[in-house]
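Q: How would the structure tokens look for this protein?
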Amino acid sequence: MKPREILDRAQTPDGSPLELAREHGHFMIRISGTPLMSSQMQGSENAMAHLAHEALGSLQSPRILVGGLGMGFTLRSALDVFGKDAHVTVSELLPPVIEYNRGPLAHLADQPLDDPRVTIHEGDVGLQLHPERWDVILMDVDNGPDAFTTRDNARLYSERGVKRLVKSLRPGGVLAVWSAYPSDRFKDRLRRSGLHCRSKIIRARWPLEKGPKHTIFITDPKGTILETPEDDPVTEPGEMNETRERPKPRQSKSGQPKSGHFKPRQSKSGQSKSGHSKPRQAKPRRPKPRRS
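A: Here is the predicted structure in token form.
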């Protein structure tokens, strides 16, 4: 078998080159040469549906929206855990990805598009966000809140986008978001929208503790924040953590508060010396390949 076999080439709506390949026995989708998703590991996508089902509890005929078809693993997991009476709509922006799931990728997740419970929507998942329409929304779009495929994907996770997602939930509904990275800023957005939220680190070979670490953001409809060792509590802007007291300023003998800062050294010319070197420039973070 060839180490790398190109199966198809296409373009995204904004003109970026998209490529489907078989690499060392696994399927890979790349956009502009950057890995977007791979069939090698899909545990975190499966875990997202399980976490959402656990948070939702028992519900007859749940209406579920899956944002992003990928290689079909999130959709398959949703069909398996939410029952025979579930109604699942999957929205996919890239037409070639839908074609791949009906062709060379169909067997990976046991042909989920052939399930009669599934409705496929070709287009922006934002067009499916109507008030109080969904019991569960599973967002498996791009690399998560740090989207890099299209600008429209980034808008889904903006402040306004999060509000639209929240308003689209029925009372007691659950929102789950897959991400390649942790993001305190995104967790803040969810909490500012009025939802209790936690993030959970899931390994790509879940339920095994193996593979790269991915993050699942999950809201709790019962109003309780469930903290786990992987959770990272976020303090709202301008607030102190309730479990810690605000430190009092130190007082000098004269009664004046001490700032705790050293007076800058003076050079012979009278100019102050900061003693600090030039700050290092952070290298741009390259997106991790989706393990879908």
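The chain is about 20% helix and 30% strand.

Residues 43-56 form the longest helix (14 residues).

Upvote if useful.
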